[in-house]
Design a protein that fits this description.
Length: 275
């Protein structure tokens, strides 16, 4: 089971639409001598904005590569003040009372509660280094005799077009050129290059053909998948290049967490009364 979470976006000082391009802000400076309560960043028409909200947004921007500077903090502070002013005006006009707004607010609340619950699950059930090492060793043992393939791909919407392009390739036309000009697959941006893959990582319809091709060979006929008609070329082969434990551990941790979440959701679903 895949569980999609829609996360709230942190306020961004870089792409904010509420700040002037010049860096000036709409927010009015507080009167000289005003003393704010501890833990309060600012007040807007009597409504307090907590300092923790500013810190949360500073941390989010730093995580995206920004530097924690006084200028960044001022931009974010002004942004948060502007947002509170706009939110108050929206409420004054009763825009939060419409049916559409109520539906969206309910969905936002639900999304937040789901995220809080699943983060709590991970916090209370951390994935240990021992688990990661055991899973890594098991994966490496299973893949030690595997071969991986460097694959290039052209995808068309019709069989006739695929056959015509395959004929051109067999006459010596450039695979990269045709892929760039004719393929409907995202790999066209790289001249059709998919990169190194294991058979288990791609559709059986393609992998079953791929493993029987020699280095530099084209499949003799287009292969049909849901994406369209595929022309594949095996550019190279090699023994599986295993990543180090350090390189693999984040992927392994995420896989454990996804499994953890799926099992948790299933357990709750099994105990729920759904009509």
């Amino acid at each position: 089971m895949n569980l999609a979470l829609f996360k709230f976006s942190a306020v961004s000082a870089v792409c904010s639409v509420l700040l002037l391009a010049s860096g000036q802000s709409f927010a009015q400076p507080k009167p000289v001598g005003t003393i704010l309560p501890t833990g309060v960043m600012a007040t807007v028409n009597g409504v307090q904005i907590p300092s923790s909200l500013l810190e949360q947004n500073v941390n989010a921007n730093v995580a995206q590569g920004q530097r924690d500077t006084p200028e960044l903090r001022q931009l974010l502070k002004d942004e948060l003040i502007n947002r509170e002013i706009l939110a108050q005006e929206s409420a004054k006009l009763g825009l939060d009372k419409t049916a559409e707004a109520k539906t969206q607010l309910a969905q936002m609340r639900q999304t937040l509660m789901v995220e809080l619950l699943l983060n709590d699950l991970i916090k209370k059930n951390p994935i240990t280094d021992v688990q990661i090492k055991a899973e890594y060793d098991q994966r490496m043992q299973a893949l030690k005799n595997e071969q991986e393939y460097k694959v290039a791909l052209i995808v068309t919407s019709t069989e006739d077009e695929a056959k015509a392009l395959l004929a051109q390739l067999k006459k010596g036309e450039s695979f990269e050129k045709i892929a760039t000009e004719k393929s409907i697959d995202p790999s066209k941006a790289r001249g059709g290059q998919v990169g190194w893959v294991l058979p288990a990582q791609i559709l059986p319809a393609i992998s079953n053909v791929m493993v029987n091709l020699n280095k530099g060979a084209l499949a003799v006929a287009p292969i049909r998948t849901q994406a369209g008609w595929n022309i594949i070329k095996v550019e190279d082969k090699r023994a599986y290049q295993a990543p180090s434990l350090n390189e693999a551990k984040n992927d392994i941790r995420q896989a454990f967490q996804q499994q953890q979440r799926a099992e948790f959701v299933k357990r709750l679903r099994d105990g729920a009364k759904v009509q």
